[in-house]
Structure formats: structure tokens, C-alpha cells
């Protein structure tokens, strides 16, 4: 209960109480102390030598609070008030709570994040809203580094944890595996997966899931050699319109919502499904199609930002008017694959 009360939101800095009294920044080590104690003025003058030390460190002492050992420092830089122990003032460079908060808000903005509130359980962490709309708990120092190095979400060096997990799940699902969790050997490039067709669990490199090179240690099936399908999916997003998704999957039907992360409020149905002899051929065919569509009809490719938050996989989505072109190209590609099959065996 008291934790909630002490929770400080960065969005509402000038609440009604600030009209009657100034905001007081409390260092994290003292945040367990009830607010009323800081509002209690300690009677007694401020020793002139304390004032000299404060001035040399960029502050002026505007009062004594709580007990004989605490002072209120006003920052010369930003005018904010911060409580400190007189001992800290004498022996160290006190940190202005106002300047610190401003720096954190600016760092967040540089990354494209919004700092929502600091984490009351750990003073080094804050809660942020990311550009994709998800919230994440991040270390202030990490955001500071991201701001300095100019790496915003979506660029190399930062993944939204929620979006990234969804992406990994959907990559796995496309190849017949279910993402279970982190690698038991703690290698960041590996994850634990379950093979959908036989139930076997094993660790696999993320890169091998993406390229379909992962083979099952139990049943020996490799996704790239198992049959697959190319599908054309139509879906309707409320207030946004109709869209077309072209993709491939071993089992499009059962994977539809899970793989694409399409919520129940979105109407979705398959327009076409083309069986492919192997996952490898399906992948190759799909890639070739996307390449041609992007090159010939760039205006009909839906930008990722348009659907973020609605579906997990926001690439390879097109406007409905591209449908006849997809049909035409698909037919050509499939015929080309049939005639150039690896052997003369019948289908
Ligand atoms: Zn300041
Ligand atoms: Zn996200
Ligand atoms: Zn298996």
C-alpha cells in the first residue's frame, strides 16, 4: 500500500499539491521514510559553513527537515529541491533529483521511449513505453547508453522484448516448432523448442530455426524436407481496412492466429493454399514472390508501422488490390518449380 503511494509518475509532475508546496526529491536510499517526516521542519539555524560547502557544490541550503542531520538543497542549475544528509553534503557531491530526472526523460526521448515511472523495487530501473506501444522495464543506465550511442528501438542493438519473443515464436511455428523458452545452457543465440509433430524437446540455434535448417534429434524430420504450403490470407483490421498476407507454413490452418498473432477481433480467412513438396521449396518460392512484388508494386506494400500492435508479423503484407498480381506470379512460380523439380518422381 505504501509502495503504491510512493510511486512516482513522470507524466504528472505538476499535480495540484505543487501549488501549495514545492516538490521535494528524495534520494532512493531514503524513500522508505514517510513523506510527512520530510515535511517536518527541524528548528535550528543552518550553520554558515554548511552554506559555503553547498555553494561550492552548486546548491544553496533552503531549510533543515526531519531531524538534525538532513538539509534541503536547492539546485542552482534547475531550481529543484533535494533532501540530503548534511554528512553527504560535506563529504561528497550531492546529486540533484531534478537534474537527474530531466536527464532520464531526455535520454528516453532520444531513444524514442517515454519514461512512465521509476521502478519502486529497484532504483536503477524505470518503466518505459516503447515506440511499438509495449511497456518494458529497463535499466536507466542502459537507456542512457542507448541514447548516447544513438540506437533506437527497431535499429540494431535493441529489441522490444515482447515483439522479439513474438517474432521468435512465429518463426518457430512456421517451421513446425514451438518456442518453449530460454536455452537451458544459457546461450543467448539458442532457445528451447518442442517439435510439433513428435513432441521432442531440444535446444536449437535461433538462426537455424529462421533458415529452417533445424532437424529433429528424435524423429529425424527436418523442416526443409517436409511438405509445406504457400498461402494467401485476407484479413480485416477494424478502422484500418483490408490486407493481404502472403506466406508459407507447414500447417497454415492451425497456426493462423498463433503464428501471426492476429487477435480475435480481426476477421481472417485463407483465399488460396498451394501445397509445396518441401518447406525449402515453399520458402524459396515465397521469397522470390516477395522480391518481385516489392520491386514492381512498392506502393502496395503495407509499411510495418501501419499494423504494429495488431499483428506480430508486420512484414510481407500488401493492399488487397495486389491480389490478381499475386495470383499471376504464384502460378508462374509454382509451374517453374514443378518443371525444375529435383527428380522425375511424380507428385
Ligand atoms: Zn538540478
Ligand atoms: Zn513491442
Ligand atoms: Zn521430431
TrEMBL record:
Q: Where is this region: Disordered?
A: 1-40
Compositionally skewed regions (Basic residues) per UniProt: 19-31
* Name of the protein this chain belongs to: GIY-YIG nuclease family protein
**Species assigned in the record:** Martelella mangrovi
Amino acid at each position: 500500500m505504501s509502495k503504491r503511494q510512493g510511486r512516482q509518475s513522470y507524466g504528472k509532475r505538476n499535480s495540484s499539491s505543487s501549488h501549495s508546496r514545492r516538490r521535494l526529491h528524495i534520494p532512493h536510499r531514503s524513500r522508505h521514510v514517510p513523506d510527512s517526516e520530510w515535511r517536518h521542519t527541524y528548528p535550528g539555524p543552518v550553520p554558515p559553513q554548511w552554506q559555503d560547502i553547498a555553494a561550492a557544490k552548486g546548491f544553496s541550503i533552503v531549510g533543515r527537515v526531519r531531524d538534525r542531520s538532513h538539509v534541503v538543497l536547492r539546485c542552482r542549475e534547475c531550481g529543484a529541491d533535494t533532501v540530503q544528509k548534511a554528512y553527504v553534503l560535506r563529504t561528497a557531491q550531492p546529486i540533484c533529483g531534478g537534474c537527474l530526472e530531466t536527464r532520464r526523460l531526455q535520454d528516453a526521448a532520444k531513444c524514442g521511449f517515454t519514461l512512465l515511472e521509476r521502478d519502486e523495487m529497484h532504483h536503477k530501473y524505470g518503466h518505459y513505453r516503447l515506440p511499438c506501444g509495449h511497456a518494458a522495464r529497463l535499466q536507466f543506465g542502459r537507456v542512457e547508453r542507448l541514447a548516447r550511442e544513438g540506437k533506437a528501438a527497431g535499429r540494431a542493438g535493441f529489441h522490444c522484448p515482447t515483439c522479439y519473443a513474438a517474432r521468435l515464436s512465429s518463426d518457430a511455428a512456421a517451421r513446425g516448432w514451438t518456442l518453449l523458452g530460454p536455452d537451458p545452457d544459457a546461450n543467448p543465440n539458442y532457445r528451447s523448442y518442442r517439435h510439433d509433430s513428435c513432441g521432442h524437446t531440444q535446444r536449437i540455434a535461433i538462426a537455424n530455426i529462421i533458415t529452417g535448417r533445424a532437424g529433429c534429434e528424435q524423429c529425424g524430420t527436418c523442416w526443409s524436407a517436409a511438405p509445406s504450403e504457400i498461402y494467401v490470407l485476407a484479413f480485416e483490421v477494424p478502422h484500418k481496412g483490408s490486407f493481404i498476407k502472403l506466406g508459407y507454413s507447414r500447417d497454415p490452418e492451425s497456426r493462423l492466429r498463433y503464428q501471426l498473432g492476429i487477435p480475435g477481433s480481426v476477421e481472417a480467412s485463407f483465399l488460396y493454399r498451394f501445397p509445396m513438396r518441401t518447406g525449402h521449396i515453399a520458402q524459396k518460392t515465397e521469397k522470390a514472390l516477395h522480391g518481385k512484388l516489392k520491386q514492381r508494386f512498392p506502393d502496395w506494400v503495407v509499411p510495418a508501422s501501419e499494423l504494429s500492435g495488431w499483428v506480430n508479423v508486420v512484414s510481407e503484407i500488401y493492399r488487397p488490390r495486389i491480389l490478381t498480381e499475386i495470383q499471376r506470379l504464384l502460378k508462374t512460380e509454382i509451374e517453374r518449380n514443378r518443371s525444375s523439380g529435383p527428380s522425375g518422381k511424380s507428385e
